[in-house]
């Protein structure tokens, strides 16, 4: 009992807290630490079992080395229709996450937390989002490339978005075969008329 009493007196002497308050605060700090750390860990890593170094030593096998995350190279798609683009909306985790601005298709897989399922911009994935970005709209009716009727300011907003995408993401293709194709901020009919 002497060790316990000494430990409790030491805690009170060094911290100025009662032992109950000290342990309560310590437990709260551990919980906060775990919560904050979980914000920066890949959810898939949380499901993996921790590597037990002792079992590796006992079996004389080297401990498995952690593998670096595999970064898939963007796949160049070339010409894609809007219907084909919709398959790249994040519903299939084996496909890249794509979206189009002004007819240019970008691989936004690197920002899956924003454009992937459940992300704040998920409705833009797999779609031509020029009008929605120009209007800063989340209305599904604005998910198209029609720039007709947009103000000068809205076109500037869209241009800013396009510059951000050109800077951050790889262009992997362009939209074709749509009723309306975007060309330099203007809308042109791309279908053939007899």
From TrEMBL:
Keywords of the record: Cell membrane, Endoplasmic reticulum, Heme, Iron, Lipid-binding, Membrane, Metal-binding, Steroid-binding, Transmembrane, Transmembrane helix
Chief location: membrane
Protein name per its UniProtKB record: MEMBRANE STEROID-BINDING PROTEIN 2
Domain of life: Eukaryota
Molecular function, one GO term: metal ion binding
Transmembrane segments: 20-41
Species the sequence originates in: Salix viminalis
Record carries keyword Lyase: no
GO CC annotations, alphabetized: endoplasmic reticulum; plasma membrane
Residue span, Cytochrome b5 heme-binding domain: 80-176
């Amino acid at each position: 009992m002497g060790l316990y009493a000494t430990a409790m007196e030491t805690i009170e002497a060094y911290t100025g807290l009662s032992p109950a308050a000290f342990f309560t605060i310590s437990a709260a700090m551990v919980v906060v630490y775990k919560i904050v750390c979980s914000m920066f860990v890949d959810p898939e890593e949380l499901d993996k079992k921790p590597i037990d170094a002792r079992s590796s030593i006992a079996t004389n096998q080297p401990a498995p080395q952690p593998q670096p995350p595999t970064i898939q190279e963007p796949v160049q798609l070339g010409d894609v229709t809007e219907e084909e683009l919709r398959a790249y909306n994040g519903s299939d985790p084996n496909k890249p996450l794509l979206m189009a601005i002004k007819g240019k298709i970008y691989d936004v897989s690197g920002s899956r937390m924003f454009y992937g399922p459940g992300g704040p911009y998920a409705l833009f994935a797999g779609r031509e989002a020029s009008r929605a970005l120009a209007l800063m709209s989340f209305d599904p009716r604005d998910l198209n490339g029609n720039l007709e009727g947009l103000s000068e300011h809205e076109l500037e907003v869209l241009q800013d978005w396009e510059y951000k995408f050109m800077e951050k993401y790889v262009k992997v293709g362009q939209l074709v075969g749509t009723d309306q194709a975007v060309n330099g901020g203007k809308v042109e009919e791309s279908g053939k008329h007899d």
